[in-house]
Amino acid sequence: MDDDREYTPLSQALKVLGELRVRSATERVGLRDAFGRILAEEIRSREDVPRFDSSHFDGYAVASSETLRASRDSPVTIVLMRAVAGPGKPRPPNLAKGRAMRVLTGAYLPRGADAVVAREDVEERPGAVSVKQPVDAGEHVYPAGADAGKGDLLFEPGKTIVGQDLVLLTSLRVGGVRVFRRPRVTIIPTGSELARNPNDASGKVVESHSVLLERLIDGAGGLPKTYPIVGDDKSAISRSIARALRESDVVLTLAGSSVGEPDLVEGAIRAFGKANSRLVHGLRVNRGRVMGFAVVGGRPIVILPGPIQGALNAFIVMGYPLIRRHLGRGMEEPPALAATMENDWEASGRYRDFDQVVYLTVRPAAEGTPRLMASASGAATEKMSFLVGKNAYAMVPGTRPRLSKGEQVWARLLPGFSWLG
Which of 116, 78, 11 is nearest to 395 (CA)? Predict the structure, then answer.
């Protein structure tokens, strides 16, 4: 690929990817397998939760009107019914007029009761209790439908299920939910110089990038799979891509994309023929401008450069959004937090007017200051140690390739890469 070629703006490339018809699929999973999954259906409450008014305290269910005249000097004595309301039991018999019923925390109240007198606020007698102060209607009562009313919309499609959601769904007696199936994402490492075994003594380079990519795919919601390394052979790369297209929803090729040298990945993709493929190769993104994508038979192939920073950048701008789109979230970027820059940063070199992926170290500000602070530094594309200690990134447009000390920046948190603390 000629370095003097015209590179495609990132916005234009993402527009093309956004128009790709995605074959999203759904599946039904049990609640214990639903954590972190993305809903593909709306969920409404099938009943009130709790189903009936419930007690917040161990005590006595009463009609509040029976306690209006109660005082410490002149307590009101109320006869107890024999029934006891306990948690996990059916609703007890109706409360007889002028009577009280012993209830335990979490138990349903009997019909006719609208308040609970705490055990410590009465004097217990055989078969009766003396109430020393009046209680208001609703006192110590958890009302029916307080968590959810029958028919209430609780969750919409696209909601990521977290732990507290599972508690509510369980209380609703929901056995399972329909979620988007995690897209299958295949990584194809290329390069005759690479070895998978870290103990390889032949002098080859250990293929390490897939270790990071697998975690990024998993964090985005996909199911990662790394194929065996393919040597510098266009036909072999093409065969590996063809297999991945049959088995995957998204394909990531790693390395084999270059400037000046024979571009093996591009050649392998072009072998599928123009009628079945679309290729955009070379984006106005630094670092990793030789990144790109293709659509073959309706499935996307993301072309990741070999150097680690370029590969990570390509995953950020194309891989992550494609995975999220398969999960019903559109071409979504990772979540972002506002942070204040601690230093100046400015793009340099021949490609300073390209969109920049700037890696940040984000940390809490001094105690008592409700801010996050971010610092940025530059590094060579192939320098892997540069990414250690970085925990976020910012997209800086080529129209203003700089960040200033004190400026607010949106620090994006990439699952599998980012952390705070």
Answer: 11
